[in-house]
Design brief:
about 150 residues; eight-stranded parallel β-sheet; 16 strands
């Protein structure tokens, strides 16, 4: 960073990525991502420091995902902790999500994870305990980490 990576509008039916990394992807220092299907996707560990993501279907997705001093607004899912399969493809791995000193406003779901996220010094309102198979979001702060 700093810099802006922007699309005119996020299309939920078309895969598009602001930043897509394989493993150990780190984005920092004033990067702004706007209007993506997936603003930030790391197939392995991902870290966001001082990043702003808005208007995306999924703001940030990683396995595991670490967020520090960042802001998320107007996304369907702001931070989405990943799941994956190991070895034979039969065993699921549920990666963790850590969010610190960040702000969430106007997202449908602020933090969605399969494992309990660790959230400190952060302003958010909604969290979703995602499961396999998926159960519908009941609303509110399902993980109890935001309120």
């Amino acid at each position: 960073g700093p810099g802006t990576i922007r699309r005119t509008v996020a299309d939920p039916n078309t895969e598009s990525y602001g930043i897509w990394g394989q493993q150990g992807t780190r984005v920092q220092d004033g990067v702004i991502l706007e209007n993506w299907r997936r603003g930030f996707l790391s197939l392995g560990s991902g870290k966001l420091i001082d990043v702003s993501i808005s208007g995306s279907v999924i703001g940030a997705n990683g396995a595991p995902l670490r967020v520090l001093g960042s802001s998320f607004s107007g996304n369907e899912f702001a931070v989405y902790g990943a799941e994956g399969t190991k070895d034979s493809g039969l065993h699921y791995t549920f990666w963790s999500c850590r969010v610190r000193e960040s702000t969430f406003t106007g997202n449908d779901i602020d933090i969605s994870c399969y494992r309990a996220p660790k959230v400190t010094d952060t302003t958010c309102t909604t969290s979703w305990h995602t499961t396999i198979p998926e159960t519908p979001f009941s609303g509110g702060d399902e993980w109890g980490v935001c309120n």
